[in-house]
């Protein structure tokens, strides 16, 4: 209802969730890759996190998710409890850039994540990618949402696409599923 504008939701309360098709795609990738360690940048109220958790829980894995909005974190925690996935999710509250810088300084996170979802502020998406890539294991997957829609993000996402396509350490493709998903595999 939020996306169709059938109801008016204040900007700071919008869920900004991925589409159901994107959730299914994330779930399938996690299952195919037998993901144990996942990272999500931009949790919102946890819709995408639950799609990931539902697949990763069977692998005995864990998810670290980053969100700065305390109200969204509160709603997400309730959603995680209702979905019975709270035990495998660690919420890092704060600014994504600062948290990612902290992870980069910790040796345990080097080549650690098998799967990453980037779905945060689009003006920083290139920096997020560059900070995250050393944290991703060889063969790990990075999925970035909103590559095609909404239109207001297209300029930032076009620059992002050009940036990652020029990186010799990854292979990437844009899928039209949902709002457009960039699916990137770390080669080396």
Summary of the model, kept short:
The protein has 188 residues and is an alpha/beta fold.
Descriptive notes:
- The protein is an alpha/beta fold and 188 residues long.
- It is built from 6 helices and 7 strands; from the N terminus they run H-E-H-E-H-E-H-E-H-E-H-E-E.
- A 7-stranded mixed beta sheet has the order 3-2-1-4-5-7-6, with helices on both faces.
- Strand 6 (170-175) and strand 7 form a beta hairpin.
- Helix 1 packs parallel to helix 2 (47-56) and helix 4 (96-105) packs parallel to helix 5 (125-132).
Key structural traits:
disordered N terminus; single chain; 7-stranded mixed sheet; 188 residues; alpha/beta; globular
